[in-house]
Amino acid sequence: MSRHRLSWVGAIAVLAVALLVGAQGSGQPETPARRALRLAGDFRCPSCRDLSAAQSDAPTAQTLRDEILKLVEAGRTDGEIRAEVVNRFGSDILLKPPATGVAGLVWVLPVVAFVAAVAGLGFAFRRWRARALGGPSEEDRRVVEEALR
User: Do 70 and 88 fall into the same domain?
Assistant: First the structure.
């Protein structure tokens, strides 16, 4: 195996191990306060709108965090808490729009455009390379001979 391939295999192995370790988590149960803060990160601040409720220092964000903590301590699931906050504030409160309907296009169209662009570049490069490797045609040679006369 060449050094070049060996270095790629090593880099991929390091990446795989790092992803595996990162996906493991701490293994400890999540505290109610930590869970409430994680859930608050899914919602916009009701007053400032440019930060999540977990990041904002606005009084409305603090109130939302307190409400989420109460719901967590009451034993509600993450889905129930999200549904209640959305029912109360509307779907604009979500930082990540649902990936259904028209809102799903926001997530799908950039990926489709990127794949199409990469495929188009691949076809263009293949075509340019085939032309470069093909050499001059008889027409090209005739034009050059006429120009040299």
Answer: yes
Q: d(Cα 38, Cα 40) in Å, to the nearest integer?
A: 5
105 and 76: one domain? no
Question: Could you give the CA distance from residue 76 to residue 82 in angstroms, rounded to a whole number?
Answer: 10
Query: In the structure, what pLDDT confidence band is assigned to residue 124 with cuts at 50, 70 and 90?
Result: very high
pLDDT for 118 beyond 90: yes
d(CA 90, CA 84): 10
Are 89 and 110 within one domain?
no
CA dihedral 50, 30, 68, 97 (to 10 degrees): 40
8 A C-beta contact, residue 95 and residue 45: no
> Is it the case that residue 102 has pLDDT exceeding 90?
no
- Whole-structure pTM value: 0.54
DSSP H helices, 25-137, are: 32-40, 59-73, 78-89, 101-134
Nearest to 56, CA basis, from 86, 95, 89, 98: 95
- Residues 113, 82 share a domain: no
> What interhelical angle do 59-73 and 32-40 show, nearest 10?
130
